[in-house]
Amino acid sequence: MEITLKPIGIVRSPYKSMSEAPRQGRFSQEISELVIFGEYGEGLEGVEDCKHIIVLYWMDRASREKLKVVPPGENAERGVFSTRSPSRPNPIGFCVAEVVEVRGNVVRVRWLDALDRSPIIDIKKYSSEIDCVK
User: Fold this and answer.
1) Which of 36, 43, 112, 127 is disulfide-compatible with 32, CB 3.0–4.6 A?
2) Which tens digits make up the pLDDT trace of 98-121?
3) How far apart (Å, rounded) are the C-alpha atoms in residues 34 and 42?
């Protein structure tokens, strides 16, 4: 089976390397920009009304070979599917981000942990009723 992903944009981020990025985006107040390619700009209509969005992006500098990792603060290896490690067979990043501003095809957000120039796969509206398990 083959899956083809087509980036809808690119991240402009203050984080140039994995060592600069926060462990989780919520641990940082830095602003990043989601630059959406022109042909997808129409899809941003209504995003300015969202307080939070889910950003799915490709962690293009992560290892794709690791199936076991040692999570931060732990001593033992675990399977990557029980962690939030960027190293995994399909390095898809998932981040809930706060929408700061939408200007044209650029969405300024807070809490994104993506590296600069990471390809954006998708953006979805965050819903506390659906996305938050209590």
Assistant:
1) 112
2) 999 999 999 999 999 999 999 999
3) 14
pTM for this predicted structure: 0.92
For residue 28, the model assigns a pLDDT of 87
d(CA 100, CA 115): 18
Q: Which residues contact 39 (CB under 8 A, 6 or more apart)?
A: none
51 φ/ψ sector (left φ>0, alpha ψ -120 to 50, else beta): alpha
Asked whether the beta carbons of 57 and 120 are under 8 A apart, the reply is yes
Question: For the CA atoms of 58, 62, 64, 68, what is the dihedral angle to 10 degrees?
Answer: -120
Is the CB of residue 60 less than 8 Å from the CB of residue 36? no
Which parts of the chain fold into alpha helices (H)? 128-131
